[in-house]
Write a structure and sequence with these properties.
alpha/beta, eight-stranded parallel β-barrel, 532 residues
Length: 532
């Protein structure tokens, strides 16, 4: 390995810096680190569906969760391990016996599995979080890897806060865990503090000073607190890292992670510079990102790189003139390469099953026959309400069938009234699968507030609203609105989404999802207490 400081990197000829042709592994942590972002919690069925989307996208590793974190995380990992084939399925674990054994149990059914162990190594974390000496951290790291190797041949080790760890000590830790059997060593920028030049130099240092580094793949996991997660990941690849940990659209803790679609397309678009490729099917990027955001009920920023609606839009006259002459004047990527289509097939009430199934497939949805018939019925009902049904409408229908959010509560009737200068009122009648009905009414600052209050009174659940937003799914006065509601319930974040051409109804459907999710996480005796 010939060490070239990053400061000299930009001054060298591109040919001299091209790596030997090889593949960079894409390690997707949308379902683990991504889900830790506020507002992005997912149900088990949603995680399973997204894992299948990621598998079809062609990622190499899916970090399905943190098995020891909760029963829901454990069962989600277990379900994904059973159902998803192709990628390696991974669970995170601290270097602790209980964590590692939980990860091993959750991954038992996986076609290919990986246990990902971690411990912090920086001075700040050693002193204030772990209260451990340098040697104690190494001892725990080695013990964690050795135990994980008893359950899995594929073990990854992460040195949490590696970029604020003394380089020579980091090299010592990595050598020790590789000696214990770690096949991948991850160097995270846990707090998004580093810069591309520092990242390049750190990877180069590791390659030069870790005596057995040839026995492991170097990985990076960059956070975006200073907006440099993708740049830092690419600098690491330039220096020899061959795994990048990232998430769809860059979601994650605080400001998020490196965005998978940006990393993949940077490596593809600038292949002459990096000399590497990924196994990701780039044409699936846009559909995958759309499915994820629609499932979460969160609007994609229009200016989002690679997958935002404006990524291939040209409004300025000079740009449009250039595009008419040659698309390469202002487009460095072809929209087709990331799954964009120049035209949208608009469906209407006369469209049949075949056209609907074809369009769903183009958007990345392959529902079974039972689910398709349910989607088709919803499509026909929607087509009677509005003249044209757009892609976002179809995706809302396809993503709106989460079994963990359906029942036991059902809306039988609702009504709202409001007037200028006064309060709004709402009434709801709900039925329950146990055979009873409840009617309640309430007032509020507006019709949405009133109907949410009526839901509270009817179900007995105190819904502390953390966030509520609504956005249009398409254009026109008859467009559907998607309501997204996040509440705190007994210390847990619970999310609900609702879609309707009536925004008050969309809010009511979001509230219905919330109370149905609560019904599945609360203690069994709470129902009787609420109704007494």
């Amino acid at each position: 390995f010939c060490y070239t400081p990053f400061e000299n990197f930009m001054n060298t000829t591109s040919a001299s810096m091209i790596q030997t042709p090889s593949q960079v592994r894409i390690f997707d942590t949308t379902l683990r680190d991504g889900e830790q972002a506020p507002g992005y919690s997912m149900s088990r069925s949603q995680k399973r569906r997204m894992a299948q989307v990621l598998a079809e996208l062609g990622v190499d590793i899916i970090e399905a969760g943190f098995a020891q974190a909760s029963d829901q995380d454990f069962t989600s990992i277990q379900s994904i391990a059973q159902d998803v084939r192709g990628p390696i399925i991974c669970s995170l674990a601290r270097c602790q016996q209980g964590d590692i054994e939980a990860a091993a149990r959750a991954l038992q059914a996986a076609q290919r599995s990986r246990i990902h162990v971690f411990i912090a190594t920086s001075p700040l974390h050693r002193e204030f979080k772990l209260a451990m000496s340098k040697q104690q951290v190494i001892d725990n790291a080695v013990a964690g890897v050795l135990l994980a190797r008893q359950y899995a041949d594929d073990v990854e080790f992460s040195a949490e806060d590696a970029m604020r760890t003394e380089p020579e000590y980091l090299a010592e830790v990595l050598a020790a865990v590789i000696g214990a059997g770690a096949g991948t060593v991850n160097i995270p920028d846990t707090v998004g503090y580093t810069t591309p030049s520092e990242m390049f130099d750190r990877i180069a240092y590791v390659r030069k000073h870790v005596r057995n580094i040839g026995q492991a793949v170097i990985s990076v996991h960059c956070h975006n607190d200073l907006g440099m997660a993708v740049a830092n990941s690419l600098a690491a690849v330039s220096a020899g890292a061959r795994q990048v940990e990232c998430t769809l659209t860059g979601i994650g803790e605080r400001a998020g992670n490196a965005a998978l679609e940006e990393v993949v397309m940077a490596l593809k678009t600038r292949s002459e510079l990096y000399g590497v490729d990924t196994g990701v099917i780039s044409q699936r990027l846009y559909p995958a990102a759309r499915q994820f955001n629609n499932m979460m009920g969160i609007a994609m920023p229009r200016n989002k790189a690679v997958v935002g609606e404006n990524a291939f839009a040209h409004e300025a006259g000079i740009h449009q003139h250039g595009m008419l002459k040659h698309r390469g004047t202002y487009e460095i990527m072809r929209p087709e390469d990331v799954g964009f289509e120049r035209s949208q097939l608009v469906l209407g009430k006369h469209s049949g099953r075949h056209a609907l199934r074809e369009r769903l497939a183009m958007l990345g949805h392959q529902p079974d026959e039972t689910l398709f018939e349910s989607i088709f019925a919803g499509f026909k009902a929607l087509a009677d309400k509005k003249r044209e049904v757009f892609d976002n409408d179809l995706e809302a229908l396809a993503n709106g069938h989460d079994p963990e959010a359906s029942g036991p509560w059902h809306i039988e009737q609702w009504h709202t009234a409001s007037h200028n200068g006064g309060t709004a009122s709402a009434s709801v009648r709900l039925s329950h699968d146990q055979g009873f009905q409840i009617s309640e009414a309430s007032i509020g600052d507006g019709p949405v507030h009133a109907i949410l209050s009526a839901f509270e009174r009817a179900t007995g659940y105190a819904l502390t609203i953390r966030n509520f937003n609504i956005h249009s799914l398409s254009n026109g006065g008859d467009a559907q609105g998607q309501a997204s509601l996040i509440v705190d319930y007994m210390g847990r974040e619970v999310r609900g989404n609702g879609v309707s051409t009536d925004i008050v109804e969309a809010a009511a459907l979001a509230a219905l999802e919330v109370v149905n999710r609560i019904e599945r996480i609360k203690a069994p005796e709470c129902l009787a207490a609420n109704l007494s």
